[in-house]
Amino acid sequence: MIKFFHVVAIGGLIASATYAYTIKYETLYHGEQLAKLKQRSQKEREAIAVLKAEWQHLNRPDRLQMLSERHLALQPLAATQLVRFSDIPARAPKIDDIGRKLEALGIGDDTPTASITRSGSATTGGQPARAAPSPALSPAPPRPPQRPQ
Questions:
Q1: HEC profile for the chain?
Q2: How many CB atoms lie within 10 A of CB 11?
Q3: Does pLDDT of 41 surpass 90?
Q4: Spans of all domains in the chain
Q5: Are 129 and 114 in contact (CB under 8 A)?
Q6: With contact defined as beta carbons under 8 Å apart, do 85 and 91 qualify?
Q7: Residue 24: what pLDDT?
Q8: What is the pLDDT of residues 63-92, one digit of tens each?
Q9: Of the chain's two ends, which shows fewer C-beta atoms within 10 Å, N or C?
Q10: In 10 A of CB 123, how many CB atoms?
Q11: Residue 76's Cα: distance from chain center in Å?
Q12: Between 128 and 58, whose confidence is greater?
């Protein structure tokens, strides 16, 4: 009986040692992965800093002024180029291409067709559509209150 307990104890010792080494090596592996990620993120930060420095160098005002003078034919703003808001012409009316084609075919205004205006109401031939009151849609008289039973 004692030999059986010795075998079980030795087996438990081997299992716990194996488990401890497994945990140790997994911890080392994850620590190495973390160090690699930190190193990679540091390299990315340095690359971003270099790109920001290059962007600031390329966007210097004196460099942009020189490039605009070389490649653009810009002139100073003249007082005659300024207008008042009231001098701006009104927006042209929207042209309905389909309506124009229908009018060209002779289908346009002679037949009263229902359409929907911007406000959402129906119109017939330019006039607001007036539907006859339907008895099914008219409001029903109010019901008397019911007593609880």
A1: CHHHHHHHHHHHHHHHHHHHHHHHHHHHHHHHHHHHHHHHHHHHHHHHHHHHHHHHHHCCHHHHHHHHHHHCCCCCCCHHHCCCHHHCCCCCCCCCHHHHHHHHHCCCCCCCCEEECCCCCEEECCEECCCCCCCCCCCCCCCCCCCCC
A2: 10
A3: yes
A4: 2-71
A5: yes
A6: no
A7: 96
A8: 999 999 899 988 888 888 888 888 888 887
A9: C
A10: 15
A11: 39
A12: 58
Ranges 12-21, 82-91, 99-108: which has the least confidence:
99-108
The span from the CA of 71 to the CA of 62, in Å, is 14
Are 115 and 123 contacting, i.e. CB atoms less than 8 angstroms apart?
yes
19, two tokens: 């488990």
The whole-number pLDDT of residue 136 equals 47
Q: Measure CA 81 to chain center.
A: 38
Identity of the amino acid at 87: D
Strands of the 122-124 sheet, one edge to the other: 114-116, 122-124, 127-128
pTM of the model: 0.41
31-67 burial, b if ≥16 CB within 10 A, otherwise e?
eeeeeeeeeeeeeeeeeeeeeeeeeeeeeeeeeeeee
